[in-house]
Design goal:
By secondary structure, the protein is α/β, with parallel strands linked by helices. It has two domains: 177 residues, Rossmann fold (3-Layer(aba) Sandwich); 77 residues. It contains ten helices and six strands, in the order E-H-E-E-H-E-H-H-E-H-E-H-H-H-H-H. A hairpin with a 2-residue loop joins strand 2 and strand 3. Bound molecules: guanosine-3'-monophosphate-5'-diphosphate (G3D) and magnesium ion. Guanosine-3'-monophosphate-5'-diphosphate (G3D) binds next to helix 1.
């Protein structure tokens, strides 16, 4: 892939009324949205570019971020809203348990129109004291859908940038996967790099660790063998078990096994 490979991707923010969707977008795009960019009554689109670096170059992704304006009008316009979405942030309000119970409803709506796309759960308003939704609740639902969650605050800004960036990385990983018809060991290695960095806190933190493990495996960077990838995959999963937990490590092992089996 060339440097600055440019992608434009549609992202939806989903969740009950007043969970903080609009506030999260405001925080992330620093209010740089234009009020006349209203596609239909009931939705609003803002955008922001992300620069994501991988081992072989960087990717510029323009996230087109779709927000529900009127929760009521939205009922009629759902199809338009979800159509062509590449990913979603599904938000609950940590101070209201029913917004957690409705997360599954939002996923069903999303899947019905957009199919299988990456999404992440956000427990928003983590700055407030009265919390009705626990870390365990979010862990459980995330495990059910084999995805991740974050605690955010649109008020303090905590994890807001990280949440959008993580989603952007997952969308990029998905894109690379779909658009690489012939899977070579090198293209699978690319995918593994992006995914490993995603899982372990982003490029700045995780890339040095990745390089260390890669060197330990003594693999050929330009043309690794499937055996190299298998060894690397095990080493990265073991590292992830130490850095995060066994659940993340097991999911990682499973993912990489499937990917490596796709090598042609
Ligand atoms: P929505 O777009 O999901 O409907 P909004 O939700 O972004 O409009 O937010 C609903 C209310 O929650 C707003 O309060 C907003 O300021 C508040 N809010 C959003 N995110 C947070 C957060 O992280 N922490 C706190 N403490 N409040 C938040 P108002 O009073 O303006 O209606
Ligand atoms: Mg709103």
């Amino acid at each position: 892939m060339p440097d600055n490979y440019f992608l434009k991707k549609k992202v939806c923010l989903l969740g009950d009324g007043a969970v903080g969707k609009t506030s999260l977008i405001r925080k992330f795009v620093y209010d740089q949205f234009s009020d006349d960019y209203i596609i239909t009554i009931g939705t609003k689109v803002s955008w922001k570019e992300l620069n994501l670096s991988g081992l072989r170059g960087s990717y510029k992704i323009k996230l087109m971020i779709w927000d529900i304006i009127g929760q009521r009008e939205f009922e009629k316009l759902q199809h338009e809203f979800f159509r062509g979405a590449h990913g979603a942030l599904i938000v609950c309000d940590l101070t209201r348990y029913e917004t957690f119970e409705n997360l599954r409803y939002w996923i069903r709506r999303l899947k019905a129109v957009s199919g299988e796309v990456p999404f992440i759960f956000l427990g928003n308003k983590c700055d407030l004291d009265t919390q009705e939704i626990s870390k365990r609740d979010l862990e459980t639902i995330s495990a059910d859908y084999e995805t991740e969650f974050m605690f955010t605050s649109a008020k303090t800004g905590e994890n807001v940038e990280r949440a959008f960036t993580l989603l952007g990385r997952n969308i990029l990983a998905d894109h690379l996967r779909e658009h690489t018809r012939t899977h070579t060991t090198a293209s699978i290695l690319d995918r593994i790099v992006v995914d490993f960095c995603n899982t372990n806190g982003g490029v700045e933190l995780a890339m040095p660790l990745f390089k260390q493990e890669f060197e330990k495996c003594g693999a050929n960077f330009a043309n690794p063998s499937t055996g190299d990838l298998e060894n690397l995959s095990e080493a990265l999963a073991a590292l992830t078990a130490n850095l995060l937990d066994d659940a993340h490590a097991d999911l990682m092992r499973k993912r990489y096994k499937v990917w490596i089996s796709e090598v042609q």
